[in-house]
Design brief:
two-stranded antiparallel ribbon; 22% strand; five-stranded mixed β-barrel; 320 residues; 9 strands; alpha+beta
Length: 320
């Protein structure tokens, strides 16, 4: 029998099955009783859960672990929530298909790395080719599984590679429309702009982010990215204008100070990188929301999208 996925859950539905633990935290309610606040997911989406009357001496399941749960789907503040009645850790004899549980990029890391390598090989600028390849080397093998975010866009295994390759596709189309842009500089900026997220977040090999690192909270990936770029420059002997331009693209790609950028974009390629990054992140988030929302229905409010509710169109002329 085919198992129900998270995206198929609805109010008052009974559920029993295996889910991946994104996070689990012991808390105390207004009456002073302990409960477990747990976020569970499969590759289709995630749902918050509550385990009431929690034994405070019991260790919560670790992020990235798999549990079997039984409970009822309820609605709280406009969002679905799973009231867990029974749960246990996955056992070896359960033979759970992990591919059903792990949100993953649509292409393999090897395929996406190959796409990035082909773009770098096409650079006319030897300096940008050296810097970009060195930044990838410094990122290491963790790039093969790191997500692009903990909760928002491309929050999936190899999501950082997915975000990068999607942006490369968009950037190359924009270069066709605006041929005055420096091709190699824009594409190099796309490839390196988020690599320091590997230092910013704590992720396991499943692409499950448990928390932000000390480096991520104190420094952040924009500033850390510049320090990594300086290291790459020292290792390759590249400096001057090329380095300064790429550094500016890293610290300005969030666009505005309130979003973490110490500088706003100050030349066309930096401005283009900012909008390509923003566009790709929002399109991915909207796609994910649409996949979780029935046709003709509205989603819950999405904080990342300015607290908007997204509508899933039917895309038919006869829709009423």
């Amino acid at each position: 029998m085919e198992e129900i996925t998270v995206v198929q859950l609805a109010k008052d539905m009974r559920y029993e099955g295996f889910l991946l633990v994104r996070s689990a935290e012991q808390r105390i309610d207004k009456k002073g009783s302990f409960y477990l606040d747990i976020t569970l997911c499969d590759r289709s989406g995630e749902i918050n859960g509550k385990i009431w009357n929690w034994n405070s001496l019991e260790t919560p399941p670790a992020s990235g672990s798999v549990v079997k749960v039984r409970g009822t789907v309820q609605e709280f503040n406009g969002r679905l929530q799973l009231r867990v009645e029974l749960w246990r850790m996955m056992r070896a004899e359960d033979e759970v298909d992990m591919r059903r549980l792990i949100p993953s990029a649509p292409e393999s890391p090897e395929t996406m790395r190959g796409e990035i390598d082909r773009v770098i090989d096409s650079f006319e600028s030897e300096s940008l080719r050296k810097l970009t390849r060195e930044m990838l080397r410094l990122a290491g093998d963790e790039l093969d599984f790191y997500p692009a975010a903990q909760r928002m866009h491309h929050a999936e295994r190899a999501g950082l590679l997915h975000h990068t390759t999607s942006m490369l596709v968009t950037a190359q189309k924009i270069l066709e429309a605006y041929p005055f842009l420096h091709r190699d500089l824009l594409l190099a900026g796309v490839i390196v702009h988020d690599l320091a997220k590997i230092d910013e977040m704590q992720s396991d090999a499943l692409g499950n982010v448990t928390d932000y690192t000390r480096d991520g909270l104190l420094i952040g990936h924009l500033v850390r990215g510049v320090s990594r770029l300086d290291e790459a420059a020292r290792n390759t002997g590249v400096g001057g204008e090329t380095l300064a331009l790429l550094e500016h693209m890293l610290i300005s790609h969030h666009g505005e100070p309130e979003f973490g950028s110490p500088r706003r974009p100050m030349f066309p390629e930096a401005e283009a990188l900012h909008w390509i990054d923003t566009f790709d992140a929002k399109m991915n988030e909207m796609q994910t929301i649409q996949e979780r929302t029935p046709e003709g229905a509205f989603s819950e409010r999405i904080k990342y999208l300015d607290d908007r509710r997204m509508y899933h169109p039917r895309y038919t002329d006869d829709a009423q």
